[in-house]
């Protein structure tokens, strides 16, 4: 009789010796301690493959940021199989982890079958990583393959436990989209929160490459985060805290454009690439890193992933609240001209049922004043209203069938109708925006019923609780479930759906 299949949750929950003899010893045999303390990950799926990632770090918080690894290249074996038991190997090979990239591994796998689930693992120096599950995207013309996409943002280590990541893994998503603030740059007690410090972060504020490497390493040691990474391929884009609060291109929030900030930007970008499942197209080049890109999920969805930090004009009105007139200057941009052209061309070329725009800051107008006076924030699309108008008109002029914007940053859930004229309550919806709250940032928060906002009638829902967004996408509709946790100051919180909205095919806006 055939051997019984291992339980999926057992395999994905941690390391396993399953199939150990199928792997041969590698050149990393001198690594005596477990080098896979930071877990494993996959990302950016294509119809024939994806990226596999790990980073060797037997001592993850070593002062030099190199994770306790020797200053020499180390070979790492990788294996992909069609089954959890690795009886049907699909691909295998050897990658070289070099000290110049903090012994990170980015394997770009091709030649696999579309729309399939695969399992993967690494081995180095006699140590076997946990098993990960990933998948290829559907074939280009496939429409009937549904997509469960979980969306997360803003995970501050000291503000709470990353239980939301484990709840994401339990939802069994096809993809996870992380919209930024994967980590925070502040040192211990640098970002106070009312519910207190749940767990201390190591070190002070991050400035040098070693600082950013150590901060990434501490975050990656979280078991809930590791489980979410090992459960599905991730799509990652950054916001501000991967470098520094409210940065804009080469401008520091306070000190502006300085050579010191450019050095800091170079260090942060280097560490970000080393610690994310990104393709070679995102290898940093000096102070630049190509992050905006497009992922296609068959004919069902095109995912346009934006970078609204690296190319933006500096915030209007001195970075304070507006409007002051500068925010509507058509020469100012939140995306930069090249990325804007790329996005508009993507709209014109799209034949997908759904066009999902993954980006960082709220696109809908957010008037925080009560009554006729308008007050808006300059770090969001409200500070770049000409950019917002061009992008919105761009998807309309291209005949995009179902535009949906996915947003993070603000530490609250929102469901918004998108409009051309937010000052006219009768202006029709031309798209939908789904804003995910934070994983932990802001700490514990209670949530009540949303009774509407007369100053923002396009807001259909709002909640300040921690959690994540779960979307289920079919050709007929996109369903959004706003998942919330009652607390993050201690682990193991349950998750529940606080509200749900649907976008129907060819019907702009939310119901």
From TrEMBL:
It comes from the Bacteria. Residues 149-482 form the PhoD-like phosphatase metallophosphatase domain. Residues 38-136 form the Phospholipase D N-terminal domain. The keyword Amino-acid biosynthesis does not apply. Residues 1-29 form the signal peptide. InterPro entries: Metallo-depent_PP-like, PhoD-like_MPP, PhoD-like_sf, PhoD_N, Phospholipid_Metab_Enz, TAT_signal. SUPFAM superfamilies: Metallo-dependent phosphatases. This is Alkaline phosphatase. It comes from Saccharopolyspora cebuensis.
């Amino acid at each position: 009789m055939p051997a019984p299949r291992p339980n999926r949750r057992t395999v994905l929950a941690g390391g396993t010796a399953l199939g150990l003899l199928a792997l041969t010893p590698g050149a990393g045999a001198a690594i005596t301690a477990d080098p896979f303390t930071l877990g494993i990950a996959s990302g950016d799926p294509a119809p024939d493959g994806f990226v596999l990632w790990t980073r060797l770090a037997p001592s993850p918080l070593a002062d030099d940021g190199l994770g306790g690894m020797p200053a020499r290249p180390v070979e790492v074996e990788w294996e992909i199989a069609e089954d959890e038991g690795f009886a049907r190997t699909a691909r295998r090979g050897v990658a070289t982890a070099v000290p110049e990239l903090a012994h990170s591994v980015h394997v770009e796998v091709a030649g696999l079958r579309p729309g399939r689930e695969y399992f993967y693992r690494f081995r180095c120096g006699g140590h076997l990583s946990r098993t990960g599950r990933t998948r290829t995207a559907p074939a280009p013309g496939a429409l009937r393959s549904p997509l469960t996409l979980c969306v997360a943002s803003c995970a501050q280590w000291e503000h709470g436990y990353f239980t939301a990541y484990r709840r994401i893994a339990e939802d069994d998503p096809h993809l996870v989209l992380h919209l930024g603030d994967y980590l925070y740059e502040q040192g211990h007690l640098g970002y106070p929160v009312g519910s207190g410090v749940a767990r201390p972060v190591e070190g002070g504020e991050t400035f040098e490459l070693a600082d950013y490497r150590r901060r990434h390493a501490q975050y990656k040691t979280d078991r809930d985060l590791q489980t979410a990474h090992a459960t599905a391929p991730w799509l990652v884009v950054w916001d501000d805290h991967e470098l520094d609060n409210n940065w804009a291109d080469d401008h520091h929030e306070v000190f502006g454009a300085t050579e010191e900030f450019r050095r800091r930007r170079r260090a942060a970008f280097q560490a970000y690439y080393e610690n994310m499942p990104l393709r070679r197209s995102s290898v940093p080049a000096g102070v630049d890193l190509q992050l905006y890109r497009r992922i296609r999920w068959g004919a069902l969805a095109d995912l346009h992933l934006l970078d609204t930090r690296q190319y933006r004009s500096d915030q209007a009105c001195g970075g304070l609240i507006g409007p002051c007139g500068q925010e509507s200057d058509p020469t100012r941009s939140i995306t930069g001209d090249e990325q804007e052209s790329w996005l508009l061309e993507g709209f014109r070329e799209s034949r997908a049922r759904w066009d999902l725009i993954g980006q960082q800051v709220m696109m809908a107008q957010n008037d925080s004043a009560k009554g006729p006076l308008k007050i808006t924030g300059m770090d969001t699309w409200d500070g770049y209203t000409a950019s917002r108008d061009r992008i919105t008109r761009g998807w309309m002029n291209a005949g995009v069938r179902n535009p949906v914007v996915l947003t993070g940053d603000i530490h609250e859930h929102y469901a918004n109708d998108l409009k051309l004229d937010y000052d006219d309550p009768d202006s029709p919806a031309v798209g939908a925006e789904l804003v995910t709250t934070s994983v932990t940032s802001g700490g514990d928060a209670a949530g009540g019923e949303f009774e509407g906002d007369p100053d923002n009638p396009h807001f259909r829902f709002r909640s300040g609780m921690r959690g994540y967004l779960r979307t289920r996408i079919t050709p007929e509709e996109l369903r959004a479930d706003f998942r919330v946790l009652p607390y993050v100051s201690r682990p193991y919180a349950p998750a529940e759906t606080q509200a749900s909205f649907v976008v129907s095919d060819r019907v702009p806006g939310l119901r």
